[in-house]
Design a protein that fits this description.
The complex is a heterodimer of chains A (155) and B (189). With 155 residues, chain A is mainly α. Chain A has four helices and no strands. In chain B, helix 2 crosses helix 4 and helix 6 crosses helix 9. The chains are: A mainly alpha (155), B mainly alpha (189). The structure holds zinc ion.
């Protein structure tokens, strides 16, 4: 067995699922090859750590730290709440002013429309009126002149 | 004081009862978190969040369930959530790693050298934690609970809400994968 074959079979060897015949070959290589032996040592060293319980000792002031954390959380939350309240107040003010601005805009827009419309109407009516009046006046003038003429002629 | 009485009192926001409860179980919670996270500072943070969660949701505790099982479950879930959020963070902060060809680059695993430990042991742990982190979540949890917490398969099945045989499958598959991952670690280092 060479090093390449050894490395290839190593996972099965570690799983304990290798047949006895092959295991023997691997063992022989392990004994004779320094490099593979070192490699195997490293791996089994890591696997050994899996069986060494790693306990953290009792922590001093654990509860004190926990209480402080809870307190900070409450303060943070109330800060977020007040910040959110301010933000929403700001937002609603912005929103309200936009609505008012738009409303005023519509009011002005529609108001001037009406004025323009009535202006035109008024103007046109006025024009007609003045035209009619002018016509009448002319008629009167004409009549008057005719009358004068008439009277003149009558006279 | 009996756990049931403690829990009833905590539900009524009894501070003293909560302190007793925390002092009784801080080691358990801290160690479960540390065994999953493999980092003391993270474990400290997450374990405290576990107790805050317990304080806030104690009325959801079913009287017939075992307190320890419940504690294990919350500790495991909070640790997993922490790992997931950290993975997401890494995705965003290490975009260069994502786009580089070296996808199998080995992430640094935080671990401190404790007095009496040599560099070899330190390297052994590094490889192990690297491999554990690369395992699928459930395999990692099952192996951690079994090996580091010395829990039996039936206890793990209660914590993880799966059958005992599923626990066995997770541990067997996880160990095989672990062997391959440790092998890969040493091949690259
Ligand atoms: Zn060799």
């Amino acid at each position: 067995m060479n090093c390449k074959e050894f490395r290839k079979s190593l996972p099965l060897y570690l799983d304990g699922e290798i047949n006895p015949n092959k295991k023997k070959k691997l063992d022989i290589h392990l004994d004779s090859c320094a490099e593979c032996s070192l490699f195997y040592q490293k791996i089994s060293g890591s696997l050994f750590q899996l069986h060494s319980k790693k306990d953290i000792d009792e922590q001093a002031f654990y509860y004190t730290r926990l209480k402080q954390r809870m307190l900070n959380k409450v303060q943070q939350e109330s800060f977020i709440h007040s910040a959110l309240f301010k933000k929403s107040l700001q937002l609603s003010t912005y929103f309200a002013s936009i609505v008012i601005a738009v409303f005023i805009g519509i009011l002005i827009g529609s108001g001037s429309d009406k004025l323009q419309y009535s202006d035109i109407n008024y103007d046109s009516k006025d024009y007609l009126k003045s035209y009619m009046e002018y016509q009448y006046l002319n008629d009167f003038e004409l009549e008057n002149k005719e009358n004068i003429l008439l009277t003149d002629t009558i006279e | 004081m009996d756990d049931k009485i403690l829990i009833d009192k905590i539900a009524q926001k009894d501070e003293k009862a909560f302190q007793l409860f925390v002092e009784k179980y801080q080691s358990l919670v801290l160690n479960v978190c540390n065994n999953i996270l493999n980092n003391y500072d993270d474990a400290m943070d997450v374990s405290q969040e576990v107790f805050i969660k317990i304080y806030n949701t104690i009325d959801q505790f079913r009287g017939d369930a075992k307190v320890k099982t419940w504690l294990y479950r919350i500790s495991v879930n909070n640790s997993l959530n922490y790992l997931r959020s950290r993975k997401k963070q890494k995705w965003f902060t290490n975009l260069d790693v994502l786009f580089s060809d070296d996808k199998d680059s080995i992430e640094p695993v935080d671990s401190e050298l404790k007095p009496g430990e040599n560099i070899e042991q330190e390297e052994n742990k590094k490889a192990l934690y690297y491999a554990l982190r690369k395992l699928p979540e459930k395999q990692n949890i099952a192996i951690s609970l079994h090996n580091f917490e010395d829990l039996a398969y039936n206890e793990i099945s209660e914590i993880m809400n799966i059958t005992v045989s599923e626990v066995g499958v997770l541990i067997n598959r996880g160990k095989k994968k672990l062997h391959k991952l440790i092998l890969k670690y040493y091949e690259n280092n």
